[in-house]
Structure to design on (598 residues):
């Protein structure tokens, strides 16, 4: 429609003026700080770090695209903050990590966040076990959820609360083929994590 | 040259407005005679059905569909009790696990019900009111008519754009802009009038059924009360239930409640609303649906829903859900309330393991570790294979776990 042409032209000019979003390569064997924090990991193969950050204290990595495999680092979420950026603080608030949140409640916090943030109607926590993370007592949990694209994904997370801040790494991929293919990579990254 | 062009554009626009802008208020609804199994006719409708068949094939395999024969059979029974046995034969029902208030029906007879609907209606008559409305869309073939209205609106605009581009001046552009607003406005109004027509049919089914037709207006009263409670707890302005936005797809809730209440047959007020049947059929699913709602993080709406479900009497499940809601929000005052709600749940059903877990965690956080650990121990006794048993066991002192 002729009516929309000026808007389209403007959009084209604007998109040409701003640099294209730059994803970064995280090289095998090189320790790198993630999520704008002191949390650092050493990947055992090359990963792509996505330029789109899900939240202030978060960062996402992927191998084949975020819908096929995604690792999200949460580097020290302070008390009173949600895990990811809220779309609308007033209309669709997300659950907050608080000073009283217990380690056993962290998986529930992620579940509540996903149900609102990813509009996931079906989310199931499969297991919650104690396990060390960053050299501190932490929690290891697994889950499965069906997203808006109706693909069932499996996920695994490790978290610890250190000095009142939440440190967590999650890995999610479609349960068909992709989860099992890269889960070992995730384990190696989680074990390499240092603060 | 300019004036005739603008004139043509305007005439095209008026033609379309006349076509899409139907009457504003429906007459008192009478039930049309049932025409039997309908088959699509014409290229548009046949195409729509073919696409719809494909969508239904995908839907049937979707992981979000709740594969519970009993629940689906009950929803079908509620529909049949509303629209009648002959009509409801043409419908296939799919219940989706999706905690929002919605249901829809597509032209080929596929009915989708979101699980969130079951928390917002309290009896069979209210459920029937919503399903009857959707069936009204199906019986009046609104889907294909809406598609045609959309196509003719955009056709007119496309041609008008071609004509306008011949002599693009400020005046022609202004006329085109007015035409665009007027055509879109009448298209959205057409959609709203279809909803009004479906509301009219829905209440006509209920008037002719053995269920109480007054329930239809009650559904919208409940929806408004929930929206108000949600806005209140978020600190937002009270929603205006009579405002019609330019692009609104449905008439405003206030108008729907008033119209449905006026159209409900007064003789039906003494009829059964099927509340007992509804509660019995939904009992196995309520805990899951409540849990889905609580985890949506809409405190005001969830608290309103729990309390309105409790109008028929508090159950252990409702107290536990309220406890989860308050514990998740997590202010200190919420934790004290949560502990109280869990305790009430346990008083009604001492074997409700998750209530013991919630109670334990809430007490731990409000400085009562000894009581809290006792509750967590009970949780493990009741549910030793819980998914988080390892984690909870770690929180207990060693001498206790050693037993």
């Amino acid at each position: 429609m002729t009516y929309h042409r000026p808007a389209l032209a403007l959009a084209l000019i604007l998109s040409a003026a701003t640099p294209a979003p730059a994803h970064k390569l995280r090289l095998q064997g090189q320790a790198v700080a993630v999520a704008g924090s002191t949390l650092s990991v050493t990947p055992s193969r090359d990963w792509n770090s996505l330029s789109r950050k899900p939240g202030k204290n978060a960062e996402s990595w992927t191998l084949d695209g975020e819908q096929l495999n995604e690792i999200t680092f949460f580097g020290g979420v302070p008390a009173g903050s949600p895990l990811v950026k809220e779309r609308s603080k007033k209309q669709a608030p997300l659950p907050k990590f608080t000073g009283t949140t217990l380690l056993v409640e962290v998986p529930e916090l992620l579940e509540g966040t996903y149900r609102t943030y990813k509009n996931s109607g079906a989310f199931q926590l499969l297991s919650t076990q104690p396990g060390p993370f960053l050299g501190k007592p932490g929690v290891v949990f697994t889950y499965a959820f069906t997203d808006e694209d109706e693909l069932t994904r499996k996920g695994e997370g490790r978290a610890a609360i250190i000095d009142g801040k939440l440190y967590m790494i999650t890995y999610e991929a479609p349960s068909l083929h992709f989860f099992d293919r890269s889960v070992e990579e995730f384990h190696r990254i989680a074990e390499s994590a240092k603060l | 040259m300019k004036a005739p062009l603008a004139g043509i554009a305007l005439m095209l626009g008026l033609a379309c407005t006349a076509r899409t802008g139907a009457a504003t208020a429906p007459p008192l609804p009478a039930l049309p005679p049932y025409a039997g199994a309908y088959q699509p006719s014409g290229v548009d409708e046949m195409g729509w059905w073919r696409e719809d068949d494909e969508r239904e094939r995908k839907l049937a395999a979707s992981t979000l569909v709740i594969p519970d024969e009993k629940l689906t059979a009950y929803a079908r029974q509620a529909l049949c009790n509303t629209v009648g046995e002959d009509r409801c034969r043409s419908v296939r029902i799919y219940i989706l696990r999706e905690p929002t208030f919605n249901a829809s029906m597509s032209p080929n007879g596929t009915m989708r019900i979101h699980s969130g609907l079951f928390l917002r209606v309290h009896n069979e008559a209210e459920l029937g009111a919503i399903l009857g409305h959707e069936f009204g869309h199906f019986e009046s073939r609104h889907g294909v008519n809406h598609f045609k209205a959309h196509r003719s609106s955009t056709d007119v605009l496309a041609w008008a754009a071609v004509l306008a581009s011949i002599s693009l001046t400020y005046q022609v552009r202004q006329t085109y802009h007015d035409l665009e607003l007027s055509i879109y406005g009448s298209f959205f109004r057409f959609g709203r009038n279809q909803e009004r027509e479906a509301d009219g049919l829905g209440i006509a089914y209920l008037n002719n059924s053995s269920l109480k037709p007054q329930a239809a207006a009650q559904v919208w009263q409940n929806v408004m009360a929930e929206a108000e409670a949600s806005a209140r707890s978020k600190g937002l302005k009270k929603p205006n239930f009579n405002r019609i936005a330019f692009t609104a797809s449905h008439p405003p809730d206030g108008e729907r409640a008033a119209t449905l209440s006026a159209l409900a047959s007064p003789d039906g007020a003494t009829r059964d609303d099927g509340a007992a049947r509804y509660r019995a059929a939904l009992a196995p699913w309520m805990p899951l649906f409540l849990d889905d709602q609580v985890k949506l993080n809409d405190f005001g709406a969830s608290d309103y829903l729990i309390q309105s479900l409790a109008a028929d009497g508090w159950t252990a499940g409702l107290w536990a859900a309220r406890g989860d809601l308050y514990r998740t929000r997590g202010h200190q005052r919420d934790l004290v309330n949560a502990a109280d709600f869990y305790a009430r749940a346990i008083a009604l059903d001492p074997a409700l393991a998750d209530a013991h877990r919630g109670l334990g965690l809430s007490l731990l956080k409000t400085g009562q570790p000894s009581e809290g650990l006792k509750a967590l121990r009970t949780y493990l006794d009741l549910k030793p294979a819980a998914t988080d048993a390892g984690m909870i066991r770690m929180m207990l002192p060693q001498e206790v776990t050693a037993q």
Notes: Chain B has two domains: 2-270, 286-401. Residues 62 and 111 of chain B are 14 Å apart (CA to CA).
